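Just curious: can you write a single protein's sequence together with how it folds?
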Amino acid sequence: MKRQHRLIALISALLIALSITARAQAAVTALRPGDEGPAVEVLQQELMRKGFYTYPQITGYYGAETELAVRQFQQSVKLARDGVAGKVTLKTLFGKNLESALGNAALSSGSPSLAKAAKEEESRPDVITPRAVASAIPIYGDDGSDDGVLKKGQTGSTVLEIQRTLVALGYLSSADGEFGSQTESAVMSFQIASGLSADGQVGPRTLAALSARDAITAEKSAPSLSGQSGSRAAQAIAIAKQFLGAKYVYATAGPTTFDCSGLTLYVFKQLGFTLPHTTRLQCQMGSYVDYENLQMGDLVFFDTVPGNGLQYDHVGIYIANGQFIHAASGSTGKVTISSLTSGYYRNAFTNARRLL
């Protein structure tokens, strides 16, 4: 009898423990770097289905590849690019299928999200909204303009504060209170890194990103831009990123659908360049660049169909940090960002051309 009571007590204890674990898992409201388990697998599968997760395997581990995919998805739907799959990001990614997709998925006991499940509360929302910093850094210049935007040509203490922030983040070398070409390029570089529209102006959204405690530094982003060529390269990337998710349609060049050379044609047309609508002819434009010397804004070319006699049959625009944006055909079928450091596109890469 005593043995039976002990067995019942043991089973009860196990049930209580399982109940506590289940409640902890249900309380998880975010997936973040370091997490692992079926929940991460489900996340990777959905990101892959939407063309953002390009790693060849579903690993179940929230590492650098998954974080990058989450950032790219967040950027495409205009959420803060923090690389954390929080409540808003997950809801936007899965939609009405969120509960069924993640309802039965679990994390391993060592996952950061599970460890914090009992008191999980994200430090900030996914959507970037202007913070209450206007009293500290008002959005107007000493030249009298008060349109809510700081831009080239303005001067004064407000510009100086913005410049000091850019210097601290590594995008600018010095601050003088004058919003000139170098400051404009620095702002555009920061905007590109933060997933914002790169117009070189400091409005409420850019100010909010600059004021964030986890503002992206130049060291963690693309190389700092400088001079006219850097500014135009940033513009090219910003224009191209506006069409992330646009459908691939052969022989089209925007503004709603693109093929690969149609996207590059459209982007560079906005910068005053006239490109032919064929990859074969675009690869004759500008100057030759090899893989080791790639810079933001370079056209990158690929041989994706070996043996067809065309050494250059696909083209995209290099972003930085081993990433490029392109209109992909096949199963992807849309404008997307892919890796150039390994895998399919690294093997298919032939060369690059520099126009900017």
Observations:
- The domain at 128-225 is CATH 1.10.101.10 (Muramoyl-pentapeptide Carboxypeptidase; domain 1).
- Residues 1-27, 118-146, 222-229 have pLDDT under 50 and may be disordered.
